[in-house]
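Subject: sequence -> structure tokens, single chain

Hey, anyone have a minute? Need the predicted structure for the following. Not urgent.
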Amino acid sequence: MLLEINAQEFLTDKVLGMPLYSHDDFMRLLYRFTFNFVFILAIVRYIYYPLAKKKEYLFTYMLISTVVFLLCFLLDNVKLQLGFALGLFAIFGIIRYRTDAIPIKEMTYLFIVIGLSVVNALVNKKISHAELVFTNMVVFFLAYGLEKIWFLKHESKRTINYENIELIKVQNYELLLKDVEERTGLIIERIEIGRIDFLTDTAFIKIFYYPEDQPAQDIPSYE
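Reply:
Had a minute. Here:
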């Protein structure tokens, strides 16, 4: 009995002003983190990734969600204002990996990941579990519906520097389509002709295709 009391006193003692262990707070952190992780994983891994096939964004979204959630949750006791939560969006909007332009769809998923992580971390006792679950479910089913039900096919595009300039003529469109399909290994829906350089006999063409119609392999990147 004495050992149990001493153990409890040891865990509740403060080290440099911080308690060594708080059972209630730790369990609340574990519960909230698991809840947030499950929903973010479902959206990113099972809705976004099967269509986009971009592993770098899968990696990024999961880590950003984890960091944002822990940041908001652990700083919640500081009693920061709503501006703190909104400021996170501004921070990530500024840094947003300035070396590369992020497509609008990927930015939308980034907003979803940050938004849900902030909501799940900062929700207080005034919000019921039902409201929290409903909020996450609405985002999940809306993303699922837009990606896989209402918008049955997601069209992707790539820009290619094409050297066989004779095939860009209107009468040679079918030959152009066949040639590009053979070179890329993609089933192409349509092709648009962009800038033409007669000095080098090259042209920039945009190819459009449906990722779900392609062979069972990762779609190569031409960017």
